[in-house]
Here is the input.
Amino acid sequence: MIHTCTIQARMRVQRLDYSGGAGEAVIGQTVTGAESGATAVVVGVGEAYLRVRGLSKPFAAGEAVSTPTWSGTLVSQADYANQSGEPAWYWADSQTGVRCRFYVRDGQGRRRHDTGDIEDPTLRCMLPPTATVGEIGYRIATTEAGFAGTYAVRRLVPRSNARGLDHYEVDLEEAI
Here is the structure.
């Protein structure tokens, strides 16, 4: 493997309901649980709740939680949903510095689709068997020259040999 990449996982924004809040929570600050030691970053403040991302581990109901400018008592923790009931998501780096190899399969040049559209060859990536990745909820980012960008995993094919899983071959498409 000659390149490096970061594998990102899609994560749910969490809602921390609290009581007895004192002070003012500020977006971007870290909230910490006094008993659990859990931490997360505040991304929104509502009426008696905080929206957070990047949980280090679950908070414990009933524990004191605080930021540098605010404190309260945690009532509950749950996945956040907006007023329409839709979940909020974000991308988090789950594995960094992963050895990989980006390539375009030989002989796979531009071709015309049945609709008349011109299709470019598929960018692919080989990942080691130790990588944790799936077709849903993962993407791959890199700064490698010629391949720099963030890509959605379109297809994942595990490749085996006599000893077991050898590597993954991943078809990529540019992420929006």
